Amino acid sequence: MQLPSIIGSVINLLLGLASIAGLGALILAGWSLRQESAGANFQVGGSFLKYVLWAGIFLTLPGVFSWLNANGVSVQQEMTGHPSGYMLQIEDVVETFVTDVVLDHLVPVLAAALVLKGILDAAEGHVPVGAIVGCLFLLGVYGIYNHARQQWNDVSAYATTNFLMNAWTYVATSICPIAAGLAVAGGILAYVRQQRWAHYVACAFGLLSVTGLYALVKAMTGVNA
């Protein structure tokens, strides 16, 4: 059945804004890091992972449509096209608003608020790591967004799951070694101050071998994927 032109135009507009929605999900993910934990951790099933998942879904919608078409669910052409006319103007306005207002002005303010929160946490005797991690994530969110679109999205029928696996590989191979170095520095500082330091060293070893540990768990469970 042919969709009315207005419905097709609205659908195309929403699909055209999917990548912007993915950027918004990444911004919310960075903000939720501090809300979930006072340190550098995050909650399994918490807001951070949910926003990352939604970012992956929004950025890989063409792959989702490919999977649906391959499995007998026909997606009409007008639902996968590009907006035109006044709908294109609306898309341009929304993209400009997100780039000029949200990304260039609001996100730095949120990052500055997290810096202030970290200072206040330290003044109360708490560890300011959570606020610092959230601040760094927000300040680098546009780079993460561009890297995710260009490197993690293969536009295949399994683009969403591949997106998440590529994100995991990036974290394991690029972020974890840096975190391991920080853990070693924390262990040295704790040793000099005659405080507990063994857990820092154990954390550093774990971060450096996280891919090996994951492969070991898969081998123990008999999973070959």
Summarize the structure.
The chain is mainly α. It has 10 helices and no strands. α2 crosses α7 and α3 runs antiparallel to α8.
Structural class: mainly alpha
Number of domain modules: 2
Helices, by number, come to: 10
Mean of the pLDDT scores?
A: 82
Spatial separation of the terminal alpha carbons: 40 Å
Indicate the low-confidence ranges by residue numbers: none
Order of helices and strands: HHHHHHHHHH
Largest sheet: none
The general outline is flat
Count of individual beta strands = 0
Helix content bin? over 70%
- The proportion of residues in beta strands is under 5%
Describe what you observe in this structure:
The protein is mainly alpha-helical. The chain has 2 domains: 1-157, no CATH class; 158-225. 76% of the residues lie in helices and 0% in strands. It is built from 10 helices and no strands. Helix 5 runs antiparallel to helix 6. The longest helix has 38 residues, at 86-123. The chain is flat. It starts with a helix and ends with a helix.
Spell out the blueprint of helices and strands.
Blueprint: H1 5-16, H2 18-36, H3 47-59, H4 61-70, H5 86-123, H6 129-139, H7 141-152, H8 159-192, H9 198-208, H10 210-221
Helix pairs in contact: 1-5, 2-3, 2-5, 2-6, 2-7, 3-8, 5-6, 8-9
Descriptive tags:
single chain; 0% strand; mainly alpha; 225 residues; flat
